[in-house]
Amino acid sequence: QALDAAGLVPNKSGNVSCRRPDGFLITPAGVPYRDLSADQIVPLALDSAPEPGDSRPSSEWRMHAAIYAHRPDVSAIVHTHSPRATALACAGRGIPPFHYMIALAGGDVRCMPYATFGTAELAESAVRGLEGRHATLLANHGVIAVGATLNAAHAVAIEVENLAAEYLAMLAAG
User: Fold this and answer.
1) DSSP state, 39?
2) DSSP single-letter state for residue 109
3) In 10 A of CB 77, how many CB atoms?
């Protein structure tokens, strides 16, 4: 709901997850964040697809599972469609290290090639984009931010959107 209030997940776009010992918890599909309640959060195992009849997890559950499988240091993932960072992603542009706050992302924020939402290809692309980083852009899609805690991943997502706004302003200024 804080991401929604900050304008980083317009309507019901994006998703959030947190690791737990037996897998992870992820936001459900199709629920506007302002209406989200704790009992709607969906538990998933790291190594299996959702069971039919269970609550419907975000369509990006594969991406979250793949990141957790490859990044033991990550305990939370925030995926947004924040307006400015998504504009850069739609232009196929990452965020270069033009400002010292890029360090929060672990270095430049790469823009990874397009892959259809919800697919294993997108999951693999996100994992590659996050190598040595805490954030990546997904072409024509949005932002992935990760952290050791939910607060840390949230802070990275906020900073990536801030850096994207500054970078776009810098580009406009020539």
Assistant:
1) G
2) B
3) 28
Helices (H), 32-149: 61-70, 83-90, 120-129
Q: Looking at the predicted structure, is the pLDDT value of residue 56 above 80? A: yes
Q: What angle do CA 6, 153, 34 make, to 5 degrees?
A: 35
Three-class DSSP category at 163: helix
Which amino acid appears at position 48 of this protein?
A: S
- Please state at what angle helix 120-129 crosses helix 61-70, rounded to 10 degrees: 40
Sheet holding 76-80, edge to edge: 42-44, 23-26, 15-20, 76-80, 142-147, 135-138, 111-112
* Positions marked catalytic: 60
Q: Tell me the pLDDT tens digit for each residue of 7-31.
A: 888 877 899 999 999 999 999 998 8
The per-residue pLDDT for 53 is 64
- Give per-residue pLDDT as tens, 58-68: 999 999 999 99
Report if pTM > 0.90.
yes
Q: Are 115 and 144 in contact (CB under 8 A)?
A: no
Facing residues of 78 across strands? 16, 145
**Angle at the Cα of 73 from the Cα atoms of 72 and 78, rounded to 5 degrees:** 100
